[in-house]
């Protein structure tokens, strides 16, 4: 080995390592899942790069992951003959965190073990999780296409720095050796590892190979005669143990639905998202016909830390006939469904498709429409059959769904049915009133869906414009999310009924006012004509009209917007945008 170089981890890595080891204490075994996940990614990448440069496969050999555990040396070794890393790549990828929003994520950690574990889970601990169980981690790697002499040996105790040096590696790919901590020797057991692989990595599409278990008898004999153990060990090394595949080794989404258990779907979700918690729902299906593709789409149960980051990861994993093409393919779902995770596998896109091509291909637009429909159907089903789950969904992702009507005109009606609001019926901030519920409760003669919009729930709830409507028992939707004004501007109506801002223009009470009320209103207007004129004059600069109103019950006066004025929230958004 030559050219040893000791480098410090990026500050964020140091911080993550410390927090992770502390917070994930009770989720130790995830290290194996992360390392197998990386090995699988590395194989995917090699297969993808080899499409254009077949020489990278160096003459063939099965793409596979090999795991071995040595209970005497207390080591676990994970090897993949995938894309590998150059020295420079090892320094970058195993010394820094490249993800957007890392600083924000770190600042949200609280020190509360349980909460942090969840956050870290969402963020994805990846390679660094090795240090939960290892006191020393060694990585031997060679990038596909480079000479055997271009191997790199990376080693670290996870305490702030790592060392890299050159090493000759005849085999392409990456070998990771974990030297287990004193208290974690249990993971150097073949059976333990094997059961973890079955549990967490069965869905990995490449074979995960492990030594065949020795026959029971041989083990007994070994125990009997302690004196020859050392020599027996030597013999075994020379013999090369026989390896066997311990997982399904088949792309999960390509297997028939009937064959798959919920647990397998959930594990696959973890592989795709790194999220510890179970998804709320998933939808797995195949579309045949002009465009043939399989999709497996998940609704997470919590909003990811980067849902509102402009650069946040979104989109699906794209495969073409099982060959991994890219992560975060954004073109397959509209933006308001950016919380959906999963895989789409096309049967007819070209293998060399690029992001740019995806943007231009009209076939993608068709798939996007189909996939959006699939998600909306899944949500409609959840809302109908599992309202509690749906409430969780709405709490996490409702504000994103509210972008839907503006973005996806074709599905406006479908999205409208999925929306939930607060209303004067319960007067609580939880949004659980659907437009269908509202319409079902409309008073006889009421033609419009009333809403009020304000900066906060409590401001909306105490709007003076609501007084009379409350008295009359007419329900009003209470809107206070930033996106709400944008939403009502694009939704406009539901089930043939206009959405009507009670603080805008004149309210048509004619259908729900009694004859006496109408008469009294008329008389009031007449008798106050002079007063109204005087106020109009006095406020000529400030207001465009003054009216006697049936809108109020207790307050003497209120301000309303003209029918076509821009709402207050919208005005603020425009101002913020410099308009
Ligand atoms: P992620 O997998 O989310 O990118 P990780 O922390 O798991 O994050 O891995 C960091 C990076 O290290 C990977 O993106 C990859 O570039 C590199 N890496 C890790 N394991 C391997 C491997 N077995 N083969 C090649 N590269 C790897
Ligand atoms: Mg990873």
UniProtKB/TrEMBL annotation:
Source organism (scientific name): Steroidobacter gossypii
HAMAP family given in the database record: HSP90
Keyword match Coiled coil: no
Major site of localization recorded for this protein: cytoplasm
Keywords: ATP-binding, Chaperone, Cytoplasm, Nucleotide-binding, Stress response
Top-rank taxon, per record: Bacteria
Assembly description: Homodimer.
Chain positions covered by the region annotation A: 1-355
Compartments where located: Cytoplasm
Protein name listed in UniProt: Chaperone protein HtpG
Role according to the record: Molecular chaperone. Has ATPase activity.
Family statement: Belongs to the heat shock protein 90 family.
Span of domain Histidine kinase/HSP90-like ATPase: 27-184
């Amino acid at each position: 080995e030559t050219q040893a170089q000791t480098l410090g981890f990026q500050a964020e890595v140091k911080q993550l390592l410390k927090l992770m080891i502390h917070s994930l204490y009770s989720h130790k075994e995830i290290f194996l899942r992360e390392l197998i996940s990386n090995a699988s990614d590395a194989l995917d990448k090699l297969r993808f790069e080899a499409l254009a440069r077949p020489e990278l496969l160096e003459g063939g050999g099965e793409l596979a992951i090999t795991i071995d555990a040595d209970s005497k040396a207390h080591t676990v070794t994970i090897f993949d003959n995938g894309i590998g890393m150059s020295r420079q790549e090892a320094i970058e990828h195993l010394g820094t965190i490249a993800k957007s929003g890392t600083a924000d994520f770190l600042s949200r950690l609280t020190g509360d073990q349980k909460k942090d574990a969840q956050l870290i889970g969402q963020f994805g601990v990846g390679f660094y999780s090795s240090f939960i169980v290892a006191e020393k981690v060694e990585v031997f790697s060679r990038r596909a296409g480079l000479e055997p002499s271009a191997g790199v040996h990376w080693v670290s105790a996870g305490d702030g720095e790592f060392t890299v040096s050159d090493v000759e590696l005849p085999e392409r790919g990456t070998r990771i050796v974990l030297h287990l901590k004193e208290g974690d020797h249990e993971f150097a057991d073949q059976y333990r590892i094997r059961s973890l692989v079955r549990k967490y990595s069965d869905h990995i599409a490449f074979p995960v190979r492990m030594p065949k278990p020795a026959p029971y008898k041989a083990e007994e004999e070994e125990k009997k005669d302690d004196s020859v153990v050392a020599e027996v060990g030597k013999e075994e090394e020379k013999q090369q143990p026989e390896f066997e595949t311990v997982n399904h080794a088949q792309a999960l989404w390509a297997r028939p639905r009937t064959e798959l258990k919920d647990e397998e779907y959930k594990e696959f979700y973890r592989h795709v998202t790194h999220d510890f918690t179970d998804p709320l729902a998933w939808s797995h299906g195949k579309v045949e016909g002009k465009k043939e593709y399989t999709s497996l789409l998940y609704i997470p149960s919590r909003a990811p830390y980067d849902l509102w980051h402009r650069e946040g990861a979104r989109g699906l994993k794209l495969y073409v006939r099982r060959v991994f093409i890219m992560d975060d393919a954004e073109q397959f779902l509209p933006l308001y469904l950016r919380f959906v995770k999963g895989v789409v596998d096309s049967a007819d896109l070209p293998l060399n498709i690029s992001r740019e091509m995806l943007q231009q291909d009209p076939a993608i637009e068709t798939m996007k429409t189909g996939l959006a429909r699939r998600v909306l159907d899944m949500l409609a089903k959840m809302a109908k059959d599992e309202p509690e789950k749906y409430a969780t969904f709405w709490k996490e992702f409702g504000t994103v769904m509210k972008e839907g009507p503006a973005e996806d005109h074709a599905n406006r009606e479908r999205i409208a049915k999925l929306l939930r609001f607060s209303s004067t019926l319960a007067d609580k901030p939880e949004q659980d009133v659907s437009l269908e519920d509202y319409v079902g409760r409309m008073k006889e003669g009421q033609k419009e869906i009333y809403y009020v919009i304000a900066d906060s729930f409590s401001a909306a709830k105490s709007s003076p414009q609501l007084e009379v409507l409350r008295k009359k028992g007419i329900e009003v939707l209470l809107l206070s999310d930033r996106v709400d004004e944008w939403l009502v501007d694009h939704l406009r109506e539901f089930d043939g009924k206009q959405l009507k801002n009670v603080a805008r223009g004149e309210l048509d009470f004619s259908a729900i006012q009694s004859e006496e009320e109408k008469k009294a209103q008329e008389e009031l207007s007449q008798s106050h004509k002079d007063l109204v004129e005087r106020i109009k004059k006095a406020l000529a600069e400030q207001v465009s009209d003054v009216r006697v109103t049936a809108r109020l019950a207790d307050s003497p006066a209120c301000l309303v917007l003209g029918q076509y004025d821009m709402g207050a929230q919208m005005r603020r958004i425009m101002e913020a945008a410099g308009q």
